[in-house]
Each structure stands twice: as C-alpha cells, then as structure tokens.
C-alpha cells in the first residue's frame, strides 16, 4: 500500500491507494460525523434497521436500512434494488444532503467526478457481525464507483481481486474513513471481518457503514 501525504490537509486526512481505482481516504467523514449520524437516525425512524434474509435462507448479521431513490434488498427471491421498503411498503426516505455531499466529494477526490448516487445502503454491525467476501454487482452502470463510509467502532475491511480465491488485503477502517473503488477494481471482492467488542463515544457498541451506489 502506498501512502501520499498532502500538505494542505490536516495530519489525520491522507489517502492510501489500495489497487488501481481503489483508495482509502482516511478521516474524510470526521468533519460531518455528527450530521451523518443524525441523518442515519432520521432515516431509521422511517425505515427501521432490520436483518434481511439471504436467498439461501441465512439471516444477515448486519442490520440494514436504505435511503435514496433505490434501496438494496435481499430475501428468498434474491438480491435486487427496489424503490419501496418491503417492511413498510413506502418509498425509502430521501438521501439526506450531508450524505450525498460527502459521497460526491469523496468520489471526486478519488478521481470519479460527477458521482450521483441514487442508493445508500446503511449497514449497522454489532460485535460479532461480519460480511463475507462478495462483489457489488446488482447495479446497472459499472462505470460509477462505490463510496463506502465507516462510522463508529473500527472493523477490518478486506479487499481482494476480481476472483473470489484471490487473497484479500486486510485494511483496518476507523471512524470517518472512506473507501472508494471503481474503474478496474469496481467489481473486486470485498467484505468485513467480525466486529470486535468495543465502545465508541458517538456510536456505542456499533459500527455503521454507508455504501453509496448509482444503482439505476
Ligand atoms: O461494511 C463495509 O465496510 C462493507 C459493506 C459492503 O460491502 C456492502 O454493504 O456491500
Ligand atoms: Fe459490498
């Protein structure tokens, strides 16, 4: 992993290239962390966190909700995007402006200008929860990147390659870190290891992850 330190940024905001097209922007969500967490709480009042079923009948260990025009869902029928929350039958809540702004700015910084996400999946992990290696491939347009924001407890992110059997790099992600991947790495395998027990001043026993995508 190479590291570039930019003189015009605070010491804790630097970027680390993972592979071509993929970068970790350390600390980029710190300035707006309270606004982001307030926005998550607001979304969850309309579209509550829930544990979705995988097509094979397993319960996901991360609790999820969505905002934006489209929400990612999984159930016994498969993985897909839809404009209504299956739990309530209502449209997903709008994407709160601080979320959109952060995703758009992070993408631009990573070399993807004009990223206009229409879907934000919100994952909430408690100690023990994880997400196995997978590809994000339910979207229409793979020219658009993924922007992934971490808030709260630290968790190890795994970033592999185009094939599942490629050994992933383990990248510890902390509060405020943003990962962006696209271009040649857009469909690379990734996941997170089990969340360790801990207590974060802003999120308690949770890690939140915001995954922004242009789905439709
Ligand atoms: O929690 C993370 O950092 C990764 C989440 C993810 O890959 C996904 O929701 O597709
Ligand atoms: Fe993913």
UniProtKB/TrEMBL annotation:
Its EC number is 1.14.11.33. The keyword NAD does not apply. SUPFAM superfamilies: Clavaminate synthase-like. Residues 116-216 form the Fe2OG dioxygenase domain. Its cofactor is Fe(2+). Keywords: Dioxygenase, Iron, Metal-binding, Oxidoreductase. One of its GO terms (molecular function) is broad specificity oxidative DNA demethylase activity. Pfam families: 2OG-FeII_Oxy_2. This is DNA oxidative demethylase AlkB. It comes from Marinobacter suaedae.
């Amino acid at each position: 992993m190479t590291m570039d330190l930019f003189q015009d940024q605070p010491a804790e905001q630097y970027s680390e290239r993972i592979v071509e097209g993929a970068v970790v922007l350390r600390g980029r969500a710190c300035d707006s962390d309270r606004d982001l967490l307030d926005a998550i709480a607001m979304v969850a009042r309309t579209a509550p966190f829930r544990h979705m079923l995988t097509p094979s009948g397993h319960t996901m260990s991360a609790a999820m909700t969505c905002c934006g025009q489209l929400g990612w869902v999984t159930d016994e029928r498969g993985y897909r995007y839809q404009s209504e929350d299956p739990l309530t039958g209502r449209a997903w809540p709008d994407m709160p402006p601080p979320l959109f702004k952060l995703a758009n700015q992070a993408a631009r910084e990573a070399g993807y200008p004009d990223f206009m996400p229409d879907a934000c999946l919100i994952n909430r992990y408690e100690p023990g929860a994880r997400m196995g290696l997978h590809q994000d491939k339910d979207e229409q347009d793979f020219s658009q990147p993924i922007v992934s924001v971490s808030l709260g407890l630290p968790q190890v992110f795994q970033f592999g390659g185009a094939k599942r059997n490629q050994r992933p790099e383990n990248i510890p992600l902390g509060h405020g870190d943003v990962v962006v991947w696209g271009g040649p790495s857009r469909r690379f395998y990734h996941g997170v290891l089990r969340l360790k027990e801990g207590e974060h001043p802003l999120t308690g026993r949770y890690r939140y992850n915001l995954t922004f995508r242009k789905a439709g």
